[in-house]
Amino acid sequence: MNPITNIPFTAQIINMCAAFLLLIAFSMLSQRRILTLINLFALQGLVLSISTAVVAFSSNQEHLYYSAGLTLVLKVILLPWILHRLIHKLNIKWDVETMFNIPTIMLIGLALVVFAFNLAAPISQMSGTITKSTLGIAIASVLLSFLMMITRSKAVPQVVGFLAMENGLFFAATSATYGMPMVVELGIALDVLVGMFILGIFFFQIRVAFDSLDLKHMEKLKED
Amino acid sequence: MFDSFGIFPIDVALGAIVTWLMLGIAGLLLQNSKIITQFVFPAGAICSLVLALSGLGGLTETSVAILPLGLPDLPFHLRMDALSSFFLLLLGGVSIGISLFSSGYFRHMERGNLALLCLEYHFFLAAMALVFIADDAYMFMVAWESMALSSYFLVTTDHDQSEVRRAGFLYLLIAHIGAIAILMSFGVMQGGHGDYTFDTMRHSHLSTLWASITFLLALFGFGAKAGILPMHAWLPEAHPAAPSPVSAMMSGIMLKTAIYGILRVTFDLLDTQMWWWGVVALTLGLITALFGAFFASVQVDMKRLLAYSSIENIGIILVGIGLSLIFHAFHKDALAALSITATLYHSLNHAFMKGLLFLGTGSVFHATGERRIGKLGGLIHKMPKLALLMLLGTLAAAGLPPLNGFVSEWLLLQAFLLSPGLPQPYLNMLVPIAAAALVLAAALSGYVMVKFYGVIFLGRPRDENLVHLHDSEIHDAGIWERIGMLCMVVACIALGVFPTLVILQLDFVTEMLVHHSLGISALKSGWLLLTPINAERASYGPLILLFIMVAGGLITMLTVKKFYHGRLRRGPAWDCGFPAQTARMQDSAEGFSQPIRKIFEWFMGVIREVPTPFDLKPHYHAETKDRLWSLFYVPIKVLNERIGNQVGKLQHGRIHVYLLYSFITLLALLAFVQ
Hints:
Low-confidence stretches of chain B: none
Number of strands of chain B: 4
Shape of chain A: globular
Low-confidence stretches of chain A: none
Structural class of chain A: mainly alpha
Number of domains of chain B: 3
Mean pLDDT of chain B: 86
Oligomer: heterodimer
Strand content of chain A: under 5%
Order of helices and strands of chain A: HHHHHHH
Largest interface: A-B, 19 and 14 residues
Mean pLDDT of chain A: 83
Distance between the termini of chain A: 57 Å
Largest sheet of chain A: none
Number of strands of chain A: 0
Helix content of chain B: over 70%
Number of helices of chain A: 7
């Protein structure tokens, strides 16, 4: 590995953003309050948007600017706003979730990060992008978001986990290949938006049907 | 035969198949009972005739065709060689009679059901014909599955009865298990070329291990369709459920598609044959034949009885295949040719005679509404024409000369008896035992047929309802039905009386399968006398026998007429001094088979209810259960359920668990690609 001074300035910023992303992923994993979780999600979007813009600047990939802008609008402003409104309407703003042992989850998360870095090593060697060293973090944040979905029992945090996973994927795409084609990105953005709306409607339906947003009540749906 | 017109037999066959399909669709669209019964079914019979003729023409020349249908770059290959042609001849010949019979039989059926049945019926015929001319595994499986599906819908024609639905499901299940085995056998046979035409398979040169696996898979897969033990369970359930013409087609023709498949795979597609394959087939065949014969003899439902009898006949055919495999592997060409001829001959005979008998049960059922033999009786007075036709059918099925059943069984026994020392000492010991078992099965089939005919047609009506029915209510078979059955009877007689001519045609098939034929030796003593190997050992002259029988009968009749003329009178039968005779005193269906049931009780699992002496309404009931249900099917079912329950535990209903599954899968896949 090169000494730190040999790395260009932009790359250092990108690396820092990646570190922030990982940190945010961990804090989301351990965050029990729903409101803070949404704020963390917005923060993750912001970091992602900044890092994308920096990548665009350093590699002169124009379409990445659009991606960055899209991320900013969608994931920092629009989606958190919708989520805020949702939890306001559902009156769960100050809900605190009971989770099982947080330190254990963090340890599993650590193991996942090691696994992700191990996985990314051969790929980043082949990749010629400026961001190649951050691929491990991208994969790690996907896995951590997934882990978050598994450990949560309420519906809203699960959706946040799902959206965070999409963030991780987006970051992986940027770091491995300078992003996906614009059409694909637009499509994904639309999917996320529509998915959010549908899930928002579902929240109300679930609460009407089960008197709670706790997903363990859905076990009743199983056929015996 | 068609050459002069520039048309090949396969074109004619394809024409007939397409016409069948169109007739089926026309029937569905027209929805008119009168048109369907009086026009569509007879037109289908004409197609059958055309198909049979094309089969006759195809025996001598091979023709191929490629249909540009199906998936892109994967056209359907068709080929009509001697083997295909023989089975097309069988299909065409038997279905003429069945279609004509159907015109009359389905006359009173409800309009919508009739239109559907017409569609399924003609699709079934077309699918079977396509099975015979398919020349790649893709086409074969498509035709095979269409055949299974259309026959499933035919079996479940009366789907408002739960036992019919149950029988249909059992049939479909076993058919699909068989189809999977067949598919796997094709998969092995293409030998990694990725090309599924039969032509590739012929040249794939498998090692003996893979060839053996192919053979066993094919035997199992086709055996499920044919009803070879232990995959026979669907036959006795499906046949009583299906309408009689459908039973006739399934038993007469569809079982033969499985025989065709076994022959095609074993002798044509595989280029090596191991001798022990023959032993496997022979043993399975003998067990199947004996099992079928024993169970047929104790049945009380006439269609179940015939179904078990079909199992027995399939067993006999399989014995023939096994024997020819053994002879072929040891290069005893003449004997291999003899036993394969017997096999083909018996397939043909069984198709006609069992078709005839099933059709007859349909007429009986229509007239009386009764399928249980024990309730019938004395029908010879009420349905004399049907009784005569059925008499000939039962005699043929019992294997009596000069009818056709005798010829093929005799040929097969000749193959057994003429077999000189094979190089395997154990085999040499097996062959006489097998011959004895075969004779036992043949004798039992005679017993079964006596029961079948005797209890249904002779004596007096056993059931009160039947006694009180007036003659006008019990009508004899209609004209269409009689014509259909007459076609079958004529074929039975012709096949029995002119064996040399039939064998001359079969020789093309034998030549193709085992590269040797009977032709010359069979004709050595002229066309009148059938001599399979040489005249010193054995010969059979059915025409002479027929002449002697007819002459003897005539002379006796004339003599009796001369001496007793005018003194014939009808009076009550001698009552042995006990005048209070009722119909219940006759031998019943259960009673007739009581000795067999007694002897083989350990083999059959009998449930018997005997009334106590104080019972005011005594009722005797004996039921014979197939032990293989509890020994084979039930354990499989239990195992299946257990595995199912274990798998069912995966479904928790908790979304987290499901997420965990995908998470673990993701991690495993990532670790794997790494």
